[in-house]
Prior knowledge:
Blueprint: E1 6-16, H1 21-29, E2 39-44, E3 50-58, H2 61-71, H3 77-82, H4 84-87, E4 93-99, H5 100-104, E5 113-120, H6 127-142
Helix pairs in contact: 2-6
Protein name: RNA-binding protein
InterPro entries: PAB1135-like (IPR002739), Ribosomal_uL5_dom_sf (IPR022803)
Pfam families: RNA_binding (PF01877)
Amino acid sequence: MPSVPFHYVDLRTFCYATEDDKRVEAALRHYLPEEFEIEVAPTEGHHGDRIVVLSARVENADEMRRVLGQVAEIDQIDRVMDELDERVDENCSLFLRLDKQAAFNGRSELGEGITLRAKVEAYPAKQEAAVENAREAFENAREGAY
């Protein structure tokens, strides 16, 4: 089984007052391994409305494989791989925005609602090396090597 070239993967979403907490949590769990702990941080919007921030940091290689496997199911994964130069920054962090409603319905799609930030391993820590490592990880995930 190939190694996972990430230090960690962060997933985060917001649950607004008009949304059901359990459904938003279920959407986030679509990308996470079973029984994974989600941090819940209640906060308040500008006008006093309730907002709950749900987040998870995945650091274990097997658990990151689960996340990558779900992300690799995105219909537009080829587009994501073509855009890696723009999606990986100078600090070797990969950014994706995922559709929260699709995740609740058991699908992986690009869209709004869930943010993914992954710290890509790269030696030396340069954007070009991180892009290549991320590309290889997505190719392995797409081929089911994870």
